[in-house]
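Protein modeling request. Please complete all fields; requests missing the sequence field cannot be processed.
Requester role: graduate student
Desired output: 3D structure, C-alpha cell encoding
Chains: 1
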Amino acid sequence: MKRVKKRGTTLIEILIVFSIFSIIASSSSTAMGIKKEEESISANDKFINEISDILTFGAMYCMSNKTIGNIYQDSKNRQIKLEVTKDREVFKIDIPKGYKVSIKSGNSNNKIEIDKDGVFRHKGSIRIDGNKNITNISIGVRVFHVNINKK
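Delivered output (151 residues):
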C-alpha cells in the first residue's frame, strides 16, 4: 500500500487557525479600549487631585506664614496659581490640553482668597470640563471644606 503524502492544509485546519486569531484579536482590542478609558479617567483624577492639593497647600501655607493668599486662573498661561502677598507666586499647576477651568468666587475678581488663619474668605467653586467629565469643587466660607462632585 502506497502512502499518499498530504499536501497543503484542510479547510478545517484553516478555520480553526482563523478562529483562534479572531478570538485573540477581539480580546486584545477590547483590552486596549479599556486601557485607554482608564488612562483618561486617571488623568482627570490626577488633575482634580492637583487642584485639591493647591487648595490644601494654600490654606496651610497662609496659616503657617501668617500671610494672605489668592488662588486664581491664569488664562494666558493655562495655569492655576497660588499667589501670596507682594505678588509672590508660590505654587502653580498647568491646565491640561482639552480642559476648561472656571473659578467663581464671592468677590468681584474671581480669586479664591485665603486669610492669615488659612481659611477661605468667600464661597467659591471651581468647574472643570475635561475628558467627557464635569467636576465641580465647592469651597466653603471660613472653614476648610472642599466638596467634589463628578458628573
